[in-house]
Specification:
This protein has 206 residues and is mostly helical. 81% of the residues lie in helices and 0% in strands. It has nine helices and no strands.
């Protein structure tokens, strides 16, 4: 993780890119680690790491869109097989129609949401120009958030960088957990309203 090392830039780009279709890759952890490793440094080349992470995230999102658009049937079998997979795809498609670009930006912070939403965009032929804009914004936000969380944690614990990493990573988990909790509350309230509406309709019919 040395500033100026071509391998560092390659890792900063490749993991956020491939993470779109291989969610098990620790892209966020690595970008946080880069932030911790460069904490306190004023070398302007550190922003190349940030740029690589943002471009990698953008490229990965668009790769996922392309897979959904070009290989729809295979993508459904590979990523959305089984009851849980079908439910995840159904949620992504319904949410996309309701929230559009906003969901594409936020989904990066929802566990498993990035792959489901970006693939779904390709599957349903979501407007590519709007998708490009949304993923450009989300890539910059995500990369900045992970990288600077690492730098802040690393600066606060300069003598113990591993503690800085743990703190920054924990904060990232908390943010993801809050986003997921909010999503679940919204879904629960919507389901409850739908149930009430259905009950009222049945009562009126009687």
């Amino acid at each position: 993780m040395e500033i100026g090392s071509p391998i560092s830039y390659l890792i900063a780009f490749a993991l956020p890119c491939l993470d779109a279709v291989l969610p098990v890759l620790p892209s966020e952890s690595v970008i946080i680690a880069f932030g911790v490793a460069t904490a306190g440094s004023t070398d302007p080349r550190i922003f190349l790491l940030l740029l690589c992470a943002a471009v990698g995230a953008f490229a990965g999102d668009n790769l996922s869109y392309l897979i959904g658009w070009r290989f729809g049937p295979w993508a459904r079998r590979r990523f959305f097989s089984g009851e849980k997979g079908a439910a995840r795809l159904d949620w992504a498609e319904r949410s996309l129609r309701r929230f559009g670009m906003g969901l594409i930006i936020v989904c990066r912070f929802i566990p498993g949401g990035r792959t489901a939403v970006t693939l779904s965009c390709g599957l349903i032929r979501y407007s590519w120009p709007r998708f490009v804009l949304a993923t450009a914004i989300s890539g910059v936000i995500w990369a900045s958030y992970a990288f600077f969380a690492g730098r802040i944690g690393g600066k606060a614990f300069e003598d113990r960088p591993w503690v800085g990493f743990v703190v920054a990573f924990g904060a990232a988990l908390v943010v993801s957990g809050l986003v997921e909790a909010i999503r679940r509350v919204i879904a629960w309230r919507k389901k409850k309203r739908s149930a009430k509406t259905s009950a009222s309709t049945r009562s009126a019919a009687r």
